[in-house]
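Incident review: delayed structure delivery

Summary: a single-chain prediction request sat in the queue longer than the usual turnaround. Root cause was a stuck worker, restarted by the on-call engineer. No data loss occurred. The affected request and its eventual output are reproduced below so the record is complete for anyone auditing the incident later.

Affected input:
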Amino acid sequence: MELDQRAEMHTIKPWRAFFPIIDSSAVETSFEKIPFANRGVGLDAMAAGPKDGPVAVLLHGFPEFWYGWRKQIEPLAKAGFRVIVPDQRGYNVSSKPRGVASYALTELVSDVIAMADELGQKQILLAGHDWGAAVAWGAALLHPKRIAKLAVVNVPHPSVMRRFLTTQPRQILRSWYIFFFQIPWLAETIFSASGFYVGTRALVRSSRPGTFSADDLAQYRAAWSQPGALASMINWYRAALRYRARFADPTVRVPTRILWGERDKFLIPEMARESLRYCTHGELFPFPDATHWLLHEEPAKVSELLVEFFQSGSPLSETTPD
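Output delivered after worker restart:
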């Protein structure tokens, strides 16, 4: 089916309706810390919910860590899901392998599949925000039989991102930092100067007023201060330009729900709608008054949409892993 024809099948729906310093006041639900491993790369994760529940993996983006999903953990756990929220490789206390190639998309996706394998899951429910969404898209394209449902927040389909980065001046201007991050050492030096002033300012200035509290920013500074973390985090961007992932078929064939804060200062909203053209079963929920930090700004609405989406339809299939 041609992409333009397939687009008619989609819906756009407005909304209705540093581990050591984390404590119970930061995340209100009970959770446990569990380790994963993928070919020598250790991944620390937080888990909550019944151990026999459907597994929902939540992937954070830059410059966050598992804490970015903290407001969605409890609602999903209470709905019966086994929620797994890792620090992705290079972040916080997870392993920080050397070399830019260690952060190629195929390596990042392999971490997700390794977690599913270690949990004994043939299929998982997968959600991602920012870079976590890019990894989630990649997992659905490279391992479609392993992903039961896909939810992405404020990052477009990889084909859309690539096209807009090369043809749309508005998006090229908004993505200036991607190119700046290619400069060795300089990005890390500027980001970390004066107690991570640039990093914290970027979060505050690109979000709605009051989105990130002083306590939240302290959590992020602690994660960024982990040895080797900052260079590893930025290596994701360097790998993206040096090691382009190849997809035999750009079509996403698993049920997909896109949530998008339309006041995103980094990504233009047109890319959300364009992403639907690459999904056989896709739907878009735009949030006109939210920014890139939708998880933080509209936590209850995001949680409700995720619970409803993950609960709908048939249970996870028993297909053999690809």
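Verification: The beta strands are 11-12, 32-38, 41-48, 55-59, 82-86, 124-129, 147-153, 256-261, 282-287.
Action items: add queue-age alerting; document worker restart procedure.
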